[in-house]
Design goal:
The protein is built from 7 helices and 11 strands. The chain is of the alpha+beta class and 290 residues long. The strands form 3 sheets. It has a 6-stranded mixed β-sheet, with helices on both faces. A hairpin with a 4-residue loop joins strand 2 and strand 3. Helix 5 packs across helix 6. It starts with 15 loop residues before the first strand and ends in a 20-residue tail after the last helix.
């Protein structure tokens, strides 16, 4: 299915016909179109992010993937032997594609998605308690493609979580199988259960129970002090649909990919602030030696 209809970029009419074809150096054959209404000839990449690109797309994807995984701008330019201006130009061109990709994703059905959820905290203007700071960023990342479904900033309150999970509910409505994995924060599951649940009627007397929608799973990894007696390290904090397949291996319940993304954000932000502990989540700290 085409993302957009082939219409003239000048007058908008659909009376467009294929005129000729030409071969590019790195991107294969392309088509020249002719608009009979305004008598304009244009390439199929005209007025798109790919217009005027001479570098192979495979190389651009490799460099931008390295940037997403945390490689700095100067390091990427040295490693791949390209200019910093070219990398910034590619990032600016392709950043406008996110609304289109989100719309395309929500209009089509997926087979399975595994989404990792985590929060990133940084100081804003001055030192404040984390609960009062506006420097929280909530991230929902699809594990296999590293696609960012949500990247919202603000104070770590219920509104911030609701904004992110409402977008996740739109994804759930278009997918057959979705797993949400979090590292310790229980509000993901609680708010998701309030927004997205089903009433299970078994025919037995009494009030019917509420469960998550069919195909939706939430897994929580208890970390640090939250792993205490009587609470398992890996658990399903919410009641799930009886027809949902529950098998998720413990080694898969983590948010390592979004944690790496958060670490990359901290390293980049530290370049703009002096005397900043990029991994600090509280004002107090201590040195560890040995």
């Amino acid at each position: 299915m085409e993302l957009s209809c082939n219409s003239c970029p000048c007058c908008g009419t659909k009376a467009v016909y294929s005129h000729s074809r030409y071969t590019t150096k790195n991107h294969g054959p392309r088509t020249i179109f002719h608009c009979r209404a305004c008598d304009v000839y244009y390439s199929e990449t005209f007025a798109t992010p790919l217009a005027g690109l001479n570098t192979p797309l495979s190389r651009i994807i490799t460099i931008l993937t390295a940037r997403t995984e945390g490689l700095g701008l100067n390091a990427a330019a040295r490693t791949f032997q390209v200019s910093k201006k070219s990398i910034l130009d590619w990032e600016q061109r392709l950043s406008d594609l996110k609304p289109t990709l989100i719309l395309y994703s929500l209009l089509h059905q997926f087979i399975h998605q595994t989404i990792e959820g985590d929060e990133l905290y940084t100081k804003v203007h001055e030192n404040r308690p984390p609960a009062l700071s506006d420097g929280w960023t909530i991230v929902l990342m699809e594990r296999s493609s590293r696609f960012l479904w949500e990247l919202s900033c603000g104070r770590k309150d219920q509104q911030l979580f609701e904004t992110a999970l409402k977008r996740l509910v739109q994804v759930i409505e278009q997918t057959d199988n979705l797993s949400l994995l979090t590292d310790g924060e229980r509000r993901y599951g609680k708010l998701l259960f309030e927004i997205c649940h089903e009433v299970i009627r078994t025919g037995k007397p009494g009030r019917p129970s509420k469960r998550l929608r069919k195909g939706v799973r939430v897994r929580l990894k208890n970390k640090g002090s939250k792993t205490r007696r009587g609470r398992p390290k890996y658990q399903a904090p919410l009641l799930e649909h009886p027809e949902t397949v529950h098998e998720i291996e413990n080694k898969e319940i983590h948010a390592n990919h979004v944690e790496a993304f958060n670490a990359a954000l901290r390293r980049r932000n530290s370049a703009f602030r002096r005397k900043t502990n990029t991994y600090a989540k509280s004002c107090s700290g201590r040195w560890v030696t040995g």
